[in-house]
Amino acid sequence: MFKITTAAADQIRVAAEQGGIEGMALRFAARENQDGSFAYNMGFDNPAEEDETLTCEGVQVVIDPAFVPLLEETTLDYVQLDDGEFKFVFLNPLDPTYVPPKEKSEDKDDA
Asked: Which terminus of the chain has fewer Cβ atoms in its 10 Å neighbourhood, N or C?
């Protein structure tokens, strides 16, 4: 099942408010590239009758049925990259180029 983290949901709500588009659903799509990797798209949209609809962390999500198989195990997160930039990232174990995120280890004092 497609998931959205709390951090991503919070940023989506901020974007919807800033854009004056509260109440619209967030549409997701994916396609498989020639090299086997996946490309992702998202944007605010009105649901269509045939769409798969769900609510993730309070965000209404719509996915065209054609894209459900590519997105069914995906998690959308909003993370800070090494350079300090924040970005939405798609974590999808179905994508052959997927590398699970490394957990940050906390520095321990020797004292």
From this structure: C
